[in-house]
Amino acid sequence: MRAHEAGAVHADAGSPSALLMSAPSDVNRLAPGVWPLGAQRDGATGVVTLAGHDVRDLAHEFGTPAYLLDEDDFRGRIRAWRSAFEQATGAEADVYYAGKSFLCTTVVSWLAHEGVNLDVCTGGELAVAVRAGFDMHRVLMHGNNKSVAELREAVERGVGLVVVDSFEEIVRLAHIAEELGTTQPVLIRVTVGVEAHTHEFIATAHEDQKFGFSLTGGQALEAVRRVQKHSSLDLRGLHSHIGSQIFSTEGFEVAAHRLVDFMGQVRDEIGSEVSLLDLGGGLGIAYTEHDDPQEPRAIAEQLAAIVSRECHARGLAMPRLAVEPGRAIAGPPTMTVYEVGTIKPVDVGQGLTRTYVSVDGGMSDNIRTPLYDASYTCALVSRASTAEPMLVRVVGKHCESGDVVVKDAWLPADLAPGDLLAVAATGAYGRSMASNYNHVPRPPVVAVTSEGARVIVRRETIDDLLALDIE
Asked: What residues are labeled active site?
């Protein structure tokens, strides 16, 4: 089976055929658990509101496309993950928000206020944390090919943990720390041969990847030995990441079994136990009603129990746990609002018609559909409709046949140019992976609360796009 970022159900078999999708009984319904908590359809006007604000007013003020972020929902999810792991471990856990999912200085300030840490993987992400004045001791930095400049910046800034990912990086980091007269705490990224994707995990096929040190062939243990040789490095623990968009803890159970076994080998090798075990992230969210993610408390209790059981069986002390939720915090609170431009029915043969609905954004603001064949939920949000549902494909404005926003969606048959559509759960990897393909400026991110709405990442302009050109 081909591993797939969006999950096993999206791998070789692809997503369910549009012909098998059943029309919804209520095309105006907003599926619970998929949309931001503050998103509701007004009973009188049929217009969708976010934190009490009419989406038409938000679109008029900030333009389309735009990422509309429910700030209370976002911050509430930060608190939920922190609280869940504190309760499950007796406060012996650290939650690191995975900045790659979506990062800006405002989000970093929310993390600081809500008391969680930050996980970065590039110098650019680290720069956001620096600009926001975040406590560097609460930053973890990973990545498979961190440059010398990035490593130096991390050490100079006092980053709390660096995850080493190669033998070359161990040497580079040790030399930098020695040169700067400091000792850098590190984790070793271990490849455990498990990659979990929604309902399945494969225990042997995923050693073939660019991240980490493999447990097979003694590579990971050799990394421990090499770290121990450098007095400028302080081995604090192990790091593992087994996949993305995970709904079950079964894969974590297999990974924990192998990690704890390896912890025993490390103890035998260096004469002491590592104090931290970072299980990574990848916890899933609901992009559609068919997705069924677990609540943070259930995940925290299961992961803590799994590691505790494995450690007890091997006579090891329970390490401090770390997790890195990103998508699970950033994804659900945000929806992207577009304006419909054209509607084009196309005869695809055998008596079938596919209706293409073009919007004013596309793969430049959400690459996940063309890149991963990801599924999304969308709705007409500028009004309600009593028309029959029609099966459509929502596409973007780019000069690319693969520019698909939502592959299959049910929208009202009276949909018209000028209507507003919203796509749910776009907060993770929407803005982060956005591009300027076809020289299209990236949309703004607008944080919305009951008290008002404000831009936290402004819309790019044509002047921004041209600023890098040298005549």
From this structure: 399
